[in-house]
Every structure is written in C-alpha cells, then in structure tokens.
Amino acid sequence: MEPTDLIADNLYSFQAGRSVCSFGDALALYLFYNGVALQIQSSELDITGFMNSVWSVPLTISTGLQNGSPSVAATLMGNAVNSTAAWVNSNGGTNSVVASTGTKALVLPPSNLAVTQSSNNFGVFTEYFNTLNWQASTDPNAVGYLVYRNGVFLAQVPANVLQFIDDNQVQNGSVTYGVASLDSLQSHSPIITISFP
Q: What does the pLDDT look like over 66-111, one tens digit per residue?
C-alpha cells in the first residue's frame, strides 16, 4: 500500500499514536494545529483488503487549546471494535491526562461456510472449481458479502447470493476461503474462514 498523508504541511503534526486490532481496523491519533489550538484528531482505515486505501475523514476528539502526546489502542471483542485514546491537556498552568473511549458495532457475519470441489471434463482437459456456500447473516443491515481466498479479497456478491464459484483450481489444492457480511456504509463483519481440502 502506498503511504497516505493524513495531514500535510502542518508544523505541529509530529506526534502520533497508532493501533491495529485483530479485525484489521487501524486507528491513527495525531496532533494537529488549526491556527488557534493544538488538537488531537483521529482517522480510521480498514486493512483487510477491501477498500483498504481509504482513511476516514479526520475527527477532532480533544477540547481546549493545548493538547499533546496522543496514544491509542483498539481490540476486537465479540462483534465490536473497542478503542481508547489518551493524551495530555494543558490549561496553561497544570496538565491533565484525558481519555476517550469508543465502540463500533460490526455487522453480523454469515455462518456455516462450506466448500466443495467439482470438475468439468472437457475431453482434452479437466477443469476443477471450488464452490463456497454459507448461511445468510441474521443482521438486517447486511447488503452483501465479501469473499476472500488465502486472505486476499476476491469478490463482492449481493445479499441474496449465498454461493460463490472459484474457477480454475488445482485438484485438491490447499486453499483457505473467507466470507464476511457487508453493510451499506461499506463496513464489514469479522471474516469466517474454512480451509480446503
């Protein structure tokens, strides 16, 4: 992935914290000077392979005029990403350590992922293909599914499609598939996986 400027040409944007949870959600927390105040801003990125080059619009999470030393941590707990941020705030006379927490509920994943291999005999050669099947997410916000092969994003299918055919595979070739639910905000569920054979 190419580097991305979250903030460019800002004299005070030199302090930063970052965290990546097991879900693949990356958080950046950094110092930003808006011409009046030293603020703490955050931005988020999905590094799982789907839309992985788009950082969210920066959010200012601090108050007051003098803030610094940002740090951040995040973790996946069940079906939610929990994060916490901390920084130093000064009123000009004394310093305080300020903390903020947040939770992002994820769309529920599909279930019962299965894979089978079949073949087509064309006389001069035999084509092998793997068929993935899964049960729909019970989340009413699911609008589609993301399919992964060996951790790499492969395809997106609509919510009414519960099957994907992966053509031109090796007979009994080792492969790991994953499927995640997708909502209308382009946020996805944890990825359920299955290995074949």
A: 999 999 999 988 888 999 999 999 998 899 999 999 998 899 999 9
Amino acid at 182: L
d(CA 172, CA 195): 11
The residue whose two tokens read 């569920």 is 189
Spans of all domains in the chain? 16-105, 111-196
Report d(CA 15, CA 113) in Å as an integer.
43
Cα gap 154→50, rounded to integer Å: 9
What sign for the dihedral angle of Cα 165, 169, 171, 175? negative
Q: Give the global pTM.
A: 0.74
Topology of the domain comprising 111-196: Immunoglobulin-like (2.60.40)
Q: 168 with 136: CB under 8 angstroms?
A: no
Contact 42, 25 (CB under 8 A): no
Residues 31 and 39: beta-carbon distance below 8 Å? yes
Residue 61 has pLDDT above 90, yes or no: yes
Give the whole-angstrom CA distance, residue 165 versus residue 153: 14
* Region 25-35 average pLDDT: 89
What's the pLDDT score for residue 186? 79
